[in-house]
């Protein structure tokens, strides 16, 4: 009997293969061609299978990353495991950068700590082991041990699954694991979403921030930033410009590309970190969101692990939408690795998109796609799906500047080789707003890059529904 | 060297050839949509190639399009993908590809072949005539619009000093033009039509073909027959840039539509505009309402401006131009020649095809800019 942890990871892998490859390969993985084993069982293996040890400890800091050429891209692996103490094991493709070890019977074992790395990432291991939090109580990218090794943009889960698929296909056809998955990964997906923090540019907080920006330089004996006066005046006269109007414009531009998205509505208590839009504005926007697009809840800042406030916000949004809202993302990405997902599940959220970084782009859980949450303390699977966000609008531009679209395209190209879905959050206020000139046209170019990569569009809810419906 | 119709399996070679010539990165899916999966479901497709040593070195395609006039609906074709590798030019290979496709068109009783090009000299000896030129109606939303209008991609391309000065001056002019347009637009929005219901079409409306017939009954002339099947292919399934189609309805009956999109250069395009009048409202009011929808729609998508075509003296074309002016559009006399070749079949048509009375919008481009 497998321990719950191994059962859990096997299930996630099977569902991921179904979603990004095909059901036949997923079934082959599940029905014996891949097996989770203890380390001490390895020496007795004598079958043509892929054996994945599930009891190798994971170091806190990734050790000795290396890359392996695979299917027209590179897989980045870390926490290499030593060759089993038996000279009958051969390193594939080579001794220096192995992906697999194979014995004479044809058994393959991963040359890196596949189970440990993936389980650690999906269960927020690196952050539960760290006490570090920023002023909003968040574990940010800078605190991740992967940050120093430049591993945050490695979709470790996807790469591992692609390698497993190659091994399974190889074992079904011959004794060799495949390193080319010709046509096997499905087209990469983009998961688009928009946090509707501000829908009217004339709210008191937004206007106050602009006013402060005018005056603040004076305190440092610098010229005032008078352009903010223009934005104050402009949004006083036309409050919807560059905010509410942008949201409807984003629906239209996505329609032009055959894409759709999720709009996360920030309602409830108003404030500097809270909702800045009136209920009427939220209601008006919800009315304009067409079928095929989703509406989700942007959990207000002060609802963080607060039952009463969370329920109040959700009840209000449920009433506006006319149905129970089951998908959401935390404002400011406030997220507790141990408590948030059980909390959200308890409150009727079944798909969450809060796991991501606000300071860097990157795969917080090492996955480009979605996974079902697991509670390591209770050792059980939760009834909630996480779709981690990888890219936040301004963060991408701040981090990569003029190269931001190239970087986005490279991430998509990589996923086209290993399978996966790239989640992107773009705020309506950043979409087309001359107040943020450096962001002009960026979303359009992201959509163009997605089209050119022949990416398909899927919302978080749609992806989770597909995974729920798949085997595993 | 062989000149023939495309063979199965050569699609990717033709797409690669086009990408190489234009320095673009169009996908095979886009190629299929344009040439192989349009509303003409016959095989072989009218796509001529020149093959030399296993390589495609030239292409010429016809995209079959149905047109409508008061005598009914009939097939024509748009000339497209006229490409020849530089080392093969000057050998009369274009003519040979056209000869092959003209025979194809005659056998299938196409009435005429048409297109838009700057290279009229090469087409004159083949029997093409040049009834008119495309011109632009244009309104800027930002000074970035002039960069697109001047043919720059606007995404950081390096310019020399003269070009920078030109762009700077043009931007200053665009700033003034933009302000004037915005004032006119603000004024016009107050006068938009009450009672007419404007809805985004999620897919092509089945009433489209009927509206097209009513349009021709009312205005006469010739235009693309925009039935639901055509609109679905051309606007809703376009893998380059789909269009937003806003329909104007009265009591559930389609009165007209405006189709618009945003292209890769950030410019908004008025792809199509059709309208028929009803008893209570003048057709000009419907056109104004739809144009305003297109302006606001493209502006909210972040477009730098919106441009459409103004081509000839067709009464509806004139009406659109007149209404557009009142809501802040400018008329710019710059564009390509409309070229037309009459196949023998056209001689049998009761309506003479001379191209002067065609209602032409950007939907005729059948191309990548919406």
Describe the structure.
The complex is a heterodimer of chains A (472) and B (370). With 472 residues, chain A is α/β, with parallel strands linked by helices. Chain A contains 17 helices and 17 strands. The model of chain A has no long low-confidence stretch (mean pLDDT 94). Chain B has helices at 11-22, 28-36, 93-107, 120-123, 144-149, 161-189, 208-219, 228-236, 283-300, 315-326; strands spanning 2-5, 47-52, 55-69, 72-84, 112-117, 129-133, 135-140, 197-200, 223-224, 244-250, 253-262, 268-275, 305-310, 330-332, 337-342. In chain B, the strands form 2 sheets. In chain B, strands 1, 2, 3, 4, 5, 6, 9 and 15 form an 8-stranded mixed beta sheet that branches. The two termini of chain B are 35 Å apart. Classes of the chains: A alpha/beta (472), B alpha+beta (370). The A-B interface holds A 245-246, 248-250, 252-253, 255-258, 290-291, 402, 431-432, 434, 440-441, 443-445, 448, 451-452, 454 and B 25, 27, 29, 142, 144, 154-156, 200, 202, 239, 241-244, 261-262, 264, 266, 297, 299-302, 370.
């Amino acid at each position: 009997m497998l321990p719950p942890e191994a059962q859990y990871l096997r299930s996630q892998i099977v569902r991921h293969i179904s979603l990004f490859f095909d059901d036949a390969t997923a079934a082959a993985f599940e029905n014996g061609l891949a097996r989770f084993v203890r380390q001490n069982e390895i020496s007795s293996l004598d079958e043509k299978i892929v054996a994945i040890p599930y009891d190798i400890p994971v170091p806190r800091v990734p050790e000795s990353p290396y890359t392996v050429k695979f299917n027209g891209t590179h897989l980045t692996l870390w926490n290499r495991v030593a060759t089993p103490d038996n000279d009958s094991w051969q390193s594939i493709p080579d001794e220096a950068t192995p992906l697999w070890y194979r014995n004479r019977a044809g058994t393959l074992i991963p040359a890196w700590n596949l189970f440990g790395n993936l389980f650690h990432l999906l269960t927020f291991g690196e952050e539960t082991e760290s006490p570090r939090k920023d002023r909003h109580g968040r574990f940010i990218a800078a605190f991740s041990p992967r940050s120093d090794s430049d591993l945050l943009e490695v979709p470790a889960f996807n790469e591992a699954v692609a390698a497993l698929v190659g091994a399974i296909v190889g074992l079904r056809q011959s004794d060799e694991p495949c390193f080319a998955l010709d046509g096997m990964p499905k087209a990469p997906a983009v998961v688009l979403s928009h946090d509707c923090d501000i829908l009217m540019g004339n709210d008191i907080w937004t206007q106050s921030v602009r006013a402060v920006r005018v005056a603040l330089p004076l305190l440092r004996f610098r010229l005032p930033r008078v352009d903010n006066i223009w934005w104050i005046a402009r949004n006083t006269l036309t409050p919807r410009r560059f905010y509410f109007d942008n949201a409807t414009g984003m629906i239209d531009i996505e329609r032009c590309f055959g894409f759709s998205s999720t709009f996360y509505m920030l309602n409830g208590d108003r404030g500097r970190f809270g909702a800045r839009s009136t209920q009427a504005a939220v209601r008006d926007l919800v009315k304009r969101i067409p079928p095929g697009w989703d509406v989700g809840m942007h959990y207000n800042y002060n609802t963080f692990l607060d039952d009463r406030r969370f329920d109040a916000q959700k009840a209000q949004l449920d009433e506006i939408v006319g149905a129970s809202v089951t998908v959401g993302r935390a404002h400011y990405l406030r997220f507790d690795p141990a408590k948030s997902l059980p909390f959200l599940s308890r409150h009727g959220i079944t798909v969450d998109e809060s796991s991501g970084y606000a300071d860097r782009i990157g795969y917080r859980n090492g996955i480009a796609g979605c996974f079902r949450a697991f509670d390591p303390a209770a050792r059980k699977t939760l009834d909630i799906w996480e779709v981690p966000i990888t890219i936040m609008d301004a963060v991408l531009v701040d981090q990569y500047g003029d190269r931001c679209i190239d970087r986005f395209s490279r991430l998509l190209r990589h996923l086209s080789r290993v399978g996966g879905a790239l989640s992107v959050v773009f705020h309506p206020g950043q979409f087309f707003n001359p107040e943020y000139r450096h962001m002009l046209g960026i979303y359009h170019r992201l959509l163009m890059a997605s089209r050119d990569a022949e990416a398909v569009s899927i919302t978080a809810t749609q992806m989770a529904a597909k995974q729920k419906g798949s085997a595993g | 060297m062989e000149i023939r119709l495309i063979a199965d399996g050569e699609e990717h070679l033709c797409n690669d050839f086009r990408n190489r010539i234009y320095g673009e990165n169009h996908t095979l899916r886009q190629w299929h949509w344009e040439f192989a999966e349009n509303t003409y479901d016959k095989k072989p497709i009218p796509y001529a190639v020149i093959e030399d040593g296993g390589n495609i070195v030239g292409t010429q395609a016809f995209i079959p399009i149905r047109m409508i006039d008061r005598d009914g609906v009939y097939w024509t074709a748009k000339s497209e993908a006229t490409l020849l590798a530089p080392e093969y030019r000057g050998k009369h290979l274009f003519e040979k590809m056209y000869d092959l496709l003209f025979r194809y068109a005659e056998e299938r009783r196409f009435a005429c072949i048409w297109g838009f090009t700057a290279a009229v000299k090469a087409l004159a000896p083949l029997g093409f005539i040049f009834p008119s030129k495309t011109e632009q109606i244009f309104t800027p939303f930002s000074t970035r619009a002039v960069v697109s209008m001047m043919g720059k991609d606007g995404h950081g391309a390096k310019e020399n000093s003269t070009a920078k000065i030109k762009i700077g001056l043009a931007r200053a002019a665009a700033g003034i033009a933009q302000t004037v347009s915005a004032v006119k637009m603000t004024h016009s929005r107050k006068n938009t039509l009450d009672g007419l219901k404007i809805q985004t079409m999620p897919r092509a409306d089945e009433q489209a073909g009927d509206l097209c017939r009513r349009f021709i009954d009312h205005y006469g002339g010739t235009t693309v027959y925009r039935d639901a099947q055509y609109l679905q292919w051309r606007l809703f399934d376009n893998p380059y840039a789909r269009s937003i189609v806003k329909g104007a309805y009265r009591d559930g009956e389609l009165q007209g539509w405006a189709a618009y999109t945003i292209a890769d250069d950030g410019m908004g395009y008025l792809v199509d505009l059709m309208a028929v009048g009803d008893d209570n409202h003048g057709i000009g009011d419907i056109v104004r309402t739809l144009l305003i929808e297109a302006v606001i729609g493209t502006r909210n998508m972040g477009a730098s401006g919106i441009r459409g075509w103004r081509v000839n003296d067709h009464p509806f074309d004139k009406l659109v131009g007149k209404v557009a002016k009142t809501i802040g559009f400018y008329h710019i006399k710059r564009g390509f020649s409309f070229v037309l070749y009459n196949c023998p079949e056209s001689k049998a048509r009761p309506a003479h095809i001379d191209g002067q009375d065609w209602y032409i919008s950007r939907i005729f481009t059948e191309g990548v800019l919406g």
